[in-house]
Amino acid sequence: MPDLDLGWARAQFPALKQEVNGYPAVFFDGPGGTQVPQRVIDAMRDYLVRSNANTHGAFATSRRSDEIIATAHAAVADLLGCDADEVIFGPNMTTLTFALSRALGRELRAGDEVVVTRLDHDANVAPWVALAERGAVIRTVDIHVEDCTLDMADLRRQINERTRLVAVGYASNAVGSINDVAEIIRLAHGVGALAFIDAVHYAPHASIDVRALDCDFLACSPYKFFGPHTGVLYGKREHLARLRPYKVRPALEELPGRWETGTQNHEGLAGVAAAVDYLAELGRRANPAAATCRAALLAAYEAIRPYELGLIQPLIAGLLEIPGLTFYGIRDPARFDWRTPTVAIRLAGHTPRELADFLGTRGIFTWDGNYYALNLTERLGVESSGGMLRIGLVHYNTAEEVERLLGALRELTLT
Ligand SMILES: Cc1ncc(COP(=O)(O)O)c(C=O)c1O
User: Which of 82, 274, 309, 326 has its CA 20 to 30 A from that of 76?
Assistant: First the structure.
């Protein structure tokens, strides 16, 4: 198993050097957005200094812009395992998903069905629920409340010959459960439906292969995997070419241009390519034999995944020992393969906001509330009382930081 070079990785992220009230900052807010390596900052700055222009012009900065945007498409194609023209950039996953739902809506007929879940972020719910305006029937798959996993028996019940789309998350941004998306895509295709995968929470933690999955669409957000605030939509070429996106007439008809209508965040795309480059270098450090960019990216995740699993163990074991703590999600170590290092808790006597406030004064950054996984917080009955406290780790976090969090929470239960 290749090892993660933690010292090198942490040294890449200047933000990790911050302090709060004399405490080194602990970034457990990754599911809301990760920090960026220096090369991302440099790439964005360089773009603005050397290449800042609109696209397809007959002069140097415009040509450099075209090249940088093409590089970003190629980089994300390596990350997802697809072709560069199947990668669509946009401001964020939510906006791209609404754009796709509007285009898909043009193909739907009254009575067609769309399947969403109670585990998902609302960005993978609301755009599809909006299709009810065009006569679509929306079906919602339930969860197992005891471990916050998707109820696959219910999913099988909800999919039928009228289903046109199944929209499901690769992993939950609230509780970290990973879904068996390969099986879900198979079930969707079994009835002739399309499968849309929200991989926003999954992408920083494990590798993605859209061809092996055979998903029709997959979305993710580079700002959750060490890049700037941008969004990505993968679509199978046949769908991207067939569907009619809402676009301005002069915008290109060929892929990916017909979906990238309007001016993109060019400096952001320069940063996206640099974020992928960071991951590839992490991979090459773990496995110098990785010959291609894709191989290096796979090697990066082969190093990231076991390292993160090594943090999940002490984090969850320590949390479960704290008196008055309610834990939401998979807690059985034998099933940790089905979770990311994102956990959600409540602590008796404190609202999630009070917990986040307290930890914040110790320099530990966590999120409270619903993080837009509204179906889930409502289903768990915590929405009206402040949601949950989310502790979300990525590979730049450390065992020592986990221990600091546990110590702070233990201290709080004693006061
Ligand atoms: C699982 C998941 N899906 C979708 C989104 C929305 O992504 P974006 O902010 O790029 O619109 C988020 C953001 O938190 C998320 O965590």
Answer: 309
Write out the two tokens for 385: 């009382």
Contact status, residue 269 vs residue 72, Cβ threshold 8 Å: yes
> Ligand 1 pocket check: which of 177, 221, 230 to mutate, most ligand atoms within 8 Å of Cβ?
221
Place of tokens 């926003």: 200
**Sign of the alpha-carbon torsion through 13, 18, 24, 30:** negative
* pLDDT single digits (tens) 279-303: 999 999 999 999 999 999 999 999 9
- C-alpha distances in Å from residue 166, one per residue of 134, 176, 326, 344: 17, 20, 31, 26
- Upstream peptide bond of 256 is cis (omega within 30 degrees of 0): yes
Between the alpha carbon of residue 111 and those of residues 86, 102, 129, 135, the distances in Å are 30, 17, 13, 6
Ligand 1 geometric centre to CA of 374 (Å): 12
What is the per-residue pLDDT across 145-182, written as a single tens digit (0 to 9) for each? 999 999 999 999 999 999 999 999 999 999 999 999 99
Q: What atom in ligand 1 is closest to the CA of residue 231?
A: 10
Residue from 116, 142, 110 nearest 128 by CA: 116
Contact 118, 375 (CB under 8 A): yes
d(CA 230, CA 49): 20
> Which tokens in the block code for residue 79?
């990350």
Atom of ligand 1 nearest to the CA of 91: 10
What's the confidence (pLDDT) of residue 415?
79
The rounded Å distance from CA 371 to ligand 1 centre is: 9
Tokens 């879940």 found at: 117
pTM of the model: 0.98
Contact residues of ligand 1, CB 6 A cut-off? 31, 92-94, 121, 123-124, 169, 173, 198, 200-201, 221, 231, 372
Q: What is the mean pLDDT of the chain?
A: 98
Residue 1 has pLDDT above 70, yes or no: no
